[in-house]
Amino acid sequence: MTDQVEEVSVQANAELQKISSIEELESWRVRYLGRKSKLISVLRSLGDVPIDERRELGARANQVKASLEELYQAHKGKIELSKHESLERDRIDVTLPGQPYQLGRLHLTTRTIREICDIFAGMGFKVVEGPEVEWEYYNFEALNMPAEHPARDGFATLWVDYEAPGGGRPMLMRTHTSPVQIRTMEKEKPPIRVVAPGRVYRYEATDATHEWMFSQVEGLAVDRNITMADLKGTLFEFARRLFGQDRKCRFRCDYFPFVEPGVEIAIDCFMCGGKGCRLCGNSGWIEILGAGMVHPEVLRGCGIDPDEYSGFAFGMGVERIPILRYGIDDIRLFYGNDLRFLKQF
Ligand code: PHE
Q1: Is the pLDDT of residue 55 over 90?
Q2: pLDDT at position 72, please?
Q3: How are beta strands 192-201 and 126-127 bridged, if at all?
Q4: Fold of 108-342
Q5: In which band, very low, low, confident or very high, does the pLDDT at 77 lie, cut at 50, 70 and 90?
Q6: How far apart are CA 67 and CA 54, in angstroms?
Q7: Does a cis peptide bond (omega within 30 degrees of 0) precede residue 257?
């Protein structure tokens, strides 16, 4: 029994060193000093021990008990103190001044796209989208630009290195949003009125006026009896809503393979009022979009009978609008991710 008491003393001491929480400490106390513990049962059964051993064993067991109790108190004090210290350390000073939250904002391009689409939504157009990685067919062929068409030279194209299953279907990064016209006419029956905003890509060296990626908004209206007057009325109204009610619009011939006739629309320069300045390149006019009556072959290719239906289409560069409005002198600022620039809008 003396051995047992010594063993308890060594074990209890060793275990106590590893204890760091009040809960563990309590279970240690129950194990070594509780009513059912070895030490206490030794003390209780002292009466059965032969008289000559009793004295020594009793004294030693009481000694161990007293020392464990002392250790227990000391360890408890230590744990409580460290808890207090960590509370002190983690204390929060609620009187410190706060750090202001940085307010996020929409990108200038996004804001401009929303503004353009809102104006057309107000005239009954719905917003649709198409893929940025596109089949050659939608970007060129279906828009009346077969493989050797010279107009393709105007679109420096980024081709995608991809062999379609079955072969022979080349892919590219769309060079304009006009393929969305085709996708819409394939899916929907007239009357159609849609605008399609999105990113477009050109294989071009970048400089202050060229980016390899920018945004366009495409528009398309197809129905019975749509004429050039509808095109003109819609786009003049759009230009005035965007640039101010007193803007004058200029309407001139232009060429795009997928429209006939094709036009270019300009507004009188809002900086100089038409007298000629740096912004308008001294011409007094600023070109803002290309448009035209949808080519009969394009309609036919989408399964729409050009003898029954007609339509107009238009396309414009998005970044160009804030460039003009705010006098931004480098298009690369839009996607350079410099917050000092982006935060201004
Ligand atoms: N897709 C033409 C371009 O990128 C713009 C356009 C669209 C012109 C629709 C006419 C009609 O230059």
Answers
A1: no
A2: 83
A3: parallel
A4: BirA Bifunctional Protein; domain 2 (3.30.930)
A5: confident
A6: 20
A7: no
Q: Measured in angstroms, how far is the CA atom of residue 289 from the centroid of ligand 1?
A: 8
What residue type is assigned to position 233 of the chain?
G
Closest of 263, 264, 282 to residue 272, by C-alpha: 282
Whats the size of the chain, residue-wise? 345
Q: What is the pTM of this model?
A: 0.72
Ligand 1: which of 222, 253, 255, 256 to mutate, judged by most atoms within 8 Å of the beta carbon? 256
Question: Which amino acid, residue 335?
Answer: Y
Identity of residue 121: A
- Is 279 a residue whose pLDDT tops 90? no
211: left (phi over 0), alpha (psi -120 to 50) or beta: beta
Identity at 219, one-letter amino acid code: G
In the chain, which ranges are E strands?
A: 126-127, 133-135, 159-160, 171-173, 192-201, 213-223, 249-254, 259-268, 285-294, 310-317
CA-closest residue to ligand 1 atom 7: 315
Domain segments of the chain as ranges: 2-89, 108-342
